[in-house]
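Hey,

The postdoc asked me to send both predictions to you directly instead of through the lab channel. I've kept everything plain text so nothing gets mangled by the mail client. Protein one:
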Amino acid sequence: MKNLEDLSGLIDELYLDELQQGNTDLGELEIYAASKLHSWNVVVTAVDKDCKVVSKFIYIVENL
């Protein structure tokens, strides 16, 4: 993974729509790769059907 094209289709509008509709599972590898490439800390929060937080995970990018 050296450029944005390597992440094409991993986290895009279609992928996010599929997540929201429950048609696909969250891909840990995709989120990890995006966080590293963009140097972003990413917070993943899972909620139940009542929108109560059931789990939270943070991918942290260390400053190099």
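Protein two:
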Amino acid sequence: MRQSERIKAIEGRRIVAHPDPDGGGNDSSARIKKRRKAWDSGRRSLPTTAKRARLGGCFVSLPIDIFVQVSNHNTQHYYSRRNARCAALQQTPAQIFIYMSGYVLLAALSSSWRSVISLPRSQISYLAHPHGAQLYCFLYAWDYDDEARQAMDKRREMIEERVDDLDLPWSEYCDVIHYSTFVFWHTLTEQVKPLTEGAWKSMLPMIQLVLELNGQQVEQAVEQPMRRACAKHVKELLLDAFAQSDPSQLAPIASVLKVERVASSSDVSNRMRHSMVVPTPNLKDSLKWDFMRPFRWAIHERDETEELFTPRLNSINARVPQWIQQVERDLTGLLFKGHHNKQIHENVTLTVNDTTTATAHLSNVTRRLLRADCVFKASKEHPLYPSLHGGSDPVVPMPLHYPELLVTRRDDAWNHTYFQPYSDATRVAKALLGSLGMPDATNLELKLIGCRLVCGQCSDKRTRDWSGMVQHYIEEGRRKKQRFKSSGAAMVNGHDLTDISDKSLVQIASMEGAGELPDLSKTIPPLKPMCGERRYHSATRHKSPQQWRYLRTGELVFNGDDGALHRV
């Protein structure tokens, strides 16, 4: 029977529903009205009567076999092809409903997900439904797509055989098509037209070009995990080298404060709250050095990498202090707007536990940057500018201190334009340090106090850390300015940094009253793993990330488990 005759045969049948087995043989008029009202309101789910319909047989036989995809839960599957709208499949345990030609096919099934089945005619019954006519067009398109797919598969197999016979370059990657070249390969192979000699001669130059581009992309994608593994190993060797030496000369301060030193190039995030960050170059900074050239693009095994790295260890230890000095000069140039200012070389006092013993060996530039009143903030060029420059109303940027500010650049190379001086925070920090009796303290010592600082100028008795207290005073000062501009009336500012005659600006709470430190991982996200598994190319011809857009919708099935479309 032809397809047109099948359509007329099904649409010409008058099919009624099976009676409810619990309803006494016939549906009441009230139940029929209720069912029609539910259908007219556009509800997708079938009434309870339809779900419990008897499945012993059917009034008429179905002239065609219907293939459906069975799901494990209630869901809706949408398809579209030209004017054929999608089919909505709803499944209850052991049952599946298909809207078709003005009727609902109700079948009892016991199949599992991802299995294509043919419904036996003896297990099909019918229920009238207004959306069935649209969905029958879908089944008609499904049959057409099945025939077209066979023709396209035959054409693709012929093309692959001819490519293998000619032994074209990059032909070994025919089974692994990169997603960037899939559209061109799909245009040449996925066609219903038969492959003729004239068509083959005209498309051969294009096939050679697509194969070359695809082979290059696939080889690059295969090398990416190997490059990441090699870079990860080089980074581990660099961190081990930094841990064995003290290029920043901050070991005496760490011993006095009794804290652990961690490299700024490692993924510290929340660890830097309880440890001292040591300025170290990251992988991108290290690869700029001439003697690190073999590790830039070449791929080495682990043993080979260690053999190449060991002779360069002395050069690395000699180059790291130079890199640290350059970073400190860049930051000092931001403070004084140039490297030739005379104030750069002025004597600076830096204390740790009220003594200068642990800081006497440091240069004036280093001591100035380590002071608690030397504060920076992220500029607009900073990669984490949105998270470091906001979070409150009015907007108060997060205060950044040296050397912890090196952590915020993550895996980017050093760039001094990422930071700029924070004048408001410097003014507040000087006043708070004077109130605490620690005018020359280092920011490392203030950080280790933890979340124990309480504001002495307002009723807010929440405990904050050093950065949080500086932000608190800046925020209150900006709110005062906003209120004065809006109202125009004079106000008494409870956070006046100059009037501290009656009470101190900040107080230190006991260890029992200490609060919880803020989670820095939300502001400074941890680094992504360098050796994680990522899909850069399709494993097969039919699983590339964008391939489903170009397949015929009759062969696509929605998977409710992962929310993706899959080919039957």
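Summary for protein two, as requested: The chain has three domains: 3-141+555-567, 144-228+541-554, 245-523.

Thanks,
C.
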